[in-house]
């Protein structure tokens, strides 16, 4: 009987390499055993282990990665209503509320416009990006005519589109509002301040973060076709995120909200806000010169445009 490596050849009349697939597989397995005897298999396993570890590493890193970096510090603008530049709505009873479309207290006005829900999720970067539950978030923005309550002519007695919410266990605050206008010199935006807790909101110097939410252009273009937003069409056409005097540094990369919805059902604008209490807040306060938005934009004034 003709054999090869102790195994009988299925076709002894043929060469070894012509014995068929079954015989070839047996030969291959025999060679692998030989390689393992010389430690080559251990090397292969080591490489495989390294490959496995490398593949697993991104998953581990991803799980530990904070969803956002620290929110950029920004000016509170000339119309904060937090006592740092005139009126102080944060001293008034009723400021803690989720629906900010109507004025409260002695004021009775209601801001009209396309419905907008604002959702901010606050992360505690000093605690590994954990939900920053219990912080107080104050938001404010202009109405569809570009006017700010408490400041702009015609609405100085109103305090609508201003409110405070306390972050829940997931670090989220939710406000019911209206889509803001685009006024001369500024990209459409929403202001906000983050305070350590509700007790701290009566002192603007206690804010641990002051910033703004930018609204994507495609949604602004749609909303500004609606009644009451006519002036915003012209104003937005003169701006880009890159040329805006607040978002221009990085085109609002860390501040651009995620928007869902439509005109008929309303929009939801969401943003994750990273707050680092180990750094010194550099935002807040009115811009130099008092009234105008930073960069020379014209402050909203006068009656709503026709």
UniProtKB/TrEMBL annotation:
Query: Does the UniProt entry include the keyword Oxidoreductase?
Result: yes
Work out whether the entry's keyword set contains Oxidoreductase: yes
**From the UniProt record, which GO molecular function terms apply?**
ferric iron binding; oxidoreductase activity, acting on single donors with incorporation of molecular oxygen, incorporation of two atoms of oxygen
**Do you know which Pfam families this protein is assigned to?**
Dioxygenase_C
Q: Which domain of life is it from?
A: Bacteria
Bias class Gly residues marks the residues at: 282-295
Instruction: Please report the stretch or stretches of sequence annotated as the Intradiol ring-cleavage dioxygenases domain.
Output: 107-185
Q: Where is this region: Disordered?
A: 54-86, 276-306
Name the UniProt key words of this record, in alphabetical order.
Dioxygenase, Oxidoreductase
- Which InterPro entries does its entry note? Intradiol_dOase_C, Intradiol_dOase_core, TAT_signal
Output compositional bias ranges, type Pro residues. Answer: 296-306
Q: Where is the composition biased (Low complexity)?
A: 54-65
Put simply, this protein is called Protocatechuate 3,4-dioxygenase beta subunit
